[in-house]
């Protein structure tokens, strides 16, 4: 009888301790999971805000140049002379270079247009003939849209791997006069996105609209 009592007592205590341990574990697990979830949510919000700010800052440059009154005026009338064409090219180059200095993430700005094909061209890496951009397979999507992000490719400016935001340039009548391309180095782009591992592993087109 004594043995049975002892065994029963031990068994009851073991069950009691098991229940207490299980309840304690569940409480601790729920608390820890809640804290981890909050931390992850905070990190996600922070990351989303950083990405959104980065995307917006690049797009703002494209919108600013394309909508600038002096830029639209330039593309609305033919240059009166070769001298005027050179002055226009210098103005567009200076504007682009100034904006690059204000946006750390931007590697280069390129303007593609046929406007100066019959005029002397200044040296530099901003202005390019339109046909060099039209050779890119992804340019077909701009038949139906005015702006957007295009996949990783090699920049004409410095032969770097870049991901770019392209924006249509129009004259005051709304006619297409060329395209603006804001280049961000691929490693910089993916770092801001928080996916550095994709820098050398992405072979498929990445398009952000």
Describe the protein's architecture and organization.
There is one protein chain. The chain is α+β, with helices and mostly antiparallel strands and 209 residues long. Helix content is 51%, strand content 17%. It has 5 helices and 5 strands; from the N terminus they run αααββαβββα. It has helices spanning 2-67, 69-74, 82-102, 130-134, 186-193; strands at 108-112, 127-128, 147-154, 161-170, 176-185. The chain has a 5-stranded mixed β-sheet.
| Category from helices, strands and their pairing | alpha+beta
Give the helices and strands as they follow along the chain.
HHHEEHEEEH
The main sheet comes to: 5 strands, mixed
Side by side, the strands of the main sheet go 2-1-5-4-3
Rg from Cα:
30 Å
Low-confidence stretches are 201-209
Share of β-strand residues: 15-25%
The outline comes out as elongated
Extended strand count: 5
* Annotation field: number of helices: 5
Q: Helicity level, as a percent range?
A: 40-55%
Mean pLDDT: 79
Give the distance, in angstroms, between the N- and C-terminal Cα atoms: 81 Å
């Amino acid at each position: 009888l004594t043995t049975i009592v002892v065994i029963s007592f031990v068994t009851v205590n073991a069950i009691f301790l098991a229940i207490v341990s299980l309840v304690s574990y569940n409480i601790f697990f729920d608390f820890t999971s809640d804290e981890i979830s909050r931390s992850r949510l905070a990190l996600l919000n922070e990351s989303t805000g950083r990405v959104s700010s980065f995307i917006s800052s690049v797009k703002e440059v494209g919108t600013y140049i394309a909508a600038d009154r002096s830029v639209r005026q330039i593309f609305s009338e033919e240059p009166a002379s070769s001298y005027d064409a050179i002055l226009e090219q210098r103005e567009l180059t200076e504007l682009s270079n100034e904006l690059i200095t204000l946006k750390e993430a931007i590697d280069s700005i390129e303007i593609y247009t046929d406007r100066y094909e019959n005029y002397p061209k200044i040296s530099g890496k901003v202005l390019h003939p339109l046909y060099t951009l039209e050779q890119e397979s992804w340019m077909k999507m701009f038949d139906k849209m005015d702006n957007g992000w295009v996949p990783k490719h090699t920049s004409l400016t410095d032969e770097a791997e870049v991901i770019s935001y392209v924006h249509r340039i129009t004259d005051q009548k709304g006619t297409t006069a060329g395209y603006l391309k804001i280049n961000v180095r691929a490693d910089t782009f993916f770092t801001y996105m928080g996916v550095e591992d994709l820098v050398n592993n992405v072979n498929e087109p990445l398009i952000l609209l």
